[in-house]
Amino acid sequence: MAKEYLLVDGYNIIFAWEDLRDLADDNLEAARVKLADILCNYQGFKKNEVILVFDGHKFRGNPGSIYHYNNIDIVYTKEAISADQFIETVVQQMGRSYNIRVATSDALEQVIILGKGATRVTARELKAEIRAVEKSIEETYKKKVSNKRNSLIDNLSDEMAELLEKMRLDDSK
């Protein structure tokens, strides 16, 4: 099975999700970090490669940058290259060799990436996937915690547990 990549059009998702859009109205950087953190949790559960792409094309002299953030990669495109163009280039180069999904609600972008071999995920679909992953993580955690007793005696050395048990039995007489 081919390795799976998820390319996320960062600003498109931020402004499509109400909670992130509201946060971006106050602090765009905080919205970018929150989206990155959400995608890190998602990636940790799904074990796919996640690349979060932000437009940097409107900033004169911007050389662009790519850096690793926890378990995902974040790309800020360089001057004159939009996130859409960057995503299209990646899909063109890798589209048939890998399973590539692109998260964007840009209708034109969806048509272009479909033609190059990737599949599309709308902002709404991505949010639903993330909610399902969060629910699975929560259920897994609850099962793990509920199956584990946490009594005092379970956390003592054998010697100390034996001593306390002896004291308990002596007191019951």
From TrEMBL:
Q: Which UniProt keywords apply?
A: Coiled coil
Top-rank taxon: Bacteria
Query: Where do the coiled-coil regions begin and end?
Result: 123-173
Q: Which InterPro entries match?
A: YacP-like
Name it: Putative RNA-binding protein with PIN domain
- What does the organism's lineage look like at the top? Bacteria, Bacillati, Bacillota, Clostridia, Lachnospirales
